Amino acid sequence: MTDIGKFFSDVDKLLKHTRQANSGKCDYDKVKKDLRSLYDRAANCPTDFPSSLYEYWENEFIYNSPDLSNEPSQDNIGRLGAMVAFLNNSDEYSDLLSAKDWEEMGRLINYEAEDLPVDLLQELMAILVSHGAY
Questions:
Q1: What are the tens digits of pLDDT across the range 9-27?
Q2: What is the pLDDT of residue 128?
Q3: Cα–Cα distance, 84 to 49 (Å, whole number)
Q4: 3-state secondary structure the chain
Q5: Measured between alpha carbons, how far is 83 from 108 in angstroms, rounded to an integer?
């Protein structure tokens, strides 16, 4: 199982337990702390870039949802997993992210560029360029 597979498995377990304790609903407010913890462990990248990316995901996909009690949806979990994969220098699940997402990720990495190790920055930039972020 890849690291992304483990991330998805751990998230599924978290959501399952939350639904069982919550009459079948997930409710983001009840899972956000644990979900963030899973993300932080899975995102293998130094600096504040993973935090910035998580905040983008949360603001763009979760807090814009018409029904926060049903978040995170499977689509949004997929997007978060794609971001984790990116942070781990992988293109897995990249098709789940839109052109707008790639552009925002490119913008966010520009803020962190000077703090990232050069080799990691080059690898991440190559992925961003291949997805039209610049």
A1: 999 999 999 888 877 777 8
A2: 95
A3: 11
A4: CCHHHHHHHHHHHHHHHHHHCCCCCCCHHHHHHHHHHHHHHHCCCCCCHHHHHHHHHHHHHHCCCCCHHHCCCHHHHHHHHHHHHHHCCCCCCHHHCCHHHHHHHHHHHHHHHHHCCHHHHHHHHHHHHHCCCC
A5: 12
